[in-house]
Design goal:
single chain, about 240 residues, mainly alpha, two-stranded antiparallel sheet, 9 helices, structural constituent of myelin sheath, Proteolipid protein 1a, membrane, transmembrane
């Protein structure tokens, strides 16, 4: 076998769908976990500096943020390992495996394993759709805050109207209703929106939201590829046709 034929044989056995999904999943999880972790830290700093004066007012929020940061560590580890397993499963069910190990024969264990990957990946996609929706909430909050600050900048010539424009963290459940001050109004709010911490937090939440969307796309791609691989494994394996997804 020549060099060209060897290269074509190797390239023909690459599970391109699973490979693309793996790259998407790695990049999406990196964005979501990395930016989400830092965004939560910056959020705690914003609340502590501009919306709450007493530690008791935001101590519960600090514990919740710490809990979610630990969850992020677990998500990053789990998805890294799971994507590697799915990619390995994709390589196993390619024609390269058939050409290497001889005529392919599907087994009951192999079919059960492929079915388990399909069900688990589909369940993860449904759960991650909820995560994707929840990750839009802080983006929506900061979008409203930015719109309010923009209105304040436009109405700088009417101080009375400016003081009526506020962002109340208590309305979003970030602080208890007895928290002081709990909100920022007028020029104080405009100053908050111009700080580096605010701009960084806003950008981090947008990046985390984009990462959640990329991860959802990767899971949907995995669902399609694993389903296709199972179909080939179940119905075409006895004919010696390997899956290429």
């Amino acid at each position: 076998m020549g060099f060209y034929d060897c290269c074509m044989r190797c390239l023909g056995g690459v599970p391109y769908c699973s490979l693309v999904a793996t790259l998407l999943c790695f990049s999406g999880i990196a964005l979501f976990c990395g930016c989400g972790h830092q965004a939560l830290t910056e959020t705690e700093r914003l609340i502590e500096t501009y919306f709450a004066r007493n530690l008791e007012d935001y101590i519960t929020l600090a514990y919740i943020i710490q809990y979610f940061q630990y969850v992020i560590y677990g998500l990053a580890s789990f998805f890294f390992l799971y994507c590697i397993v799915l990619l390995a499963e994709g390589f196993y069910t390619t024609s390269a495996a058939k050409q290497t190990f001889g005529e392919f024969r599907s087994t009951m264990c192999g079919r059960c394993l492929s079915t388990s990957f399909i069900v688990l990946t589909y369940a993860l996609a449904v759960l991650w759709l909820l995560v994707f929706a929840l990750s839009a909430l802080p983006v929506y909050f900061f979008y409203n805050m930015d719109a309010t600050c923009h209105t304040i900048d436009v109405l700088t010539e009417t101080p009375a109207s400016i003081n009526q424009l506020c962002v109340d963290a208590r309305q979003f459940g970030l602080l208890p209703w007895n928290a002081v001050p709990g909100k920022a109004c007028g020029m104080s709010l405009s100053i908050v929106c111009k700080t580096r911490e605010y701009r960084m937090t806003n950008d981090l939440y947008i990046a985390a939201f984009a990462g959640a969307g990329i991860t959802l796309l990767a899971l949907l791609t995995y669902t399609v590829s694993t389903t296709y691989n199972f179909a080939v494994l179940r119905y075409l394996g006895r004919k010696g046709i390997g899956a290429r997804c």
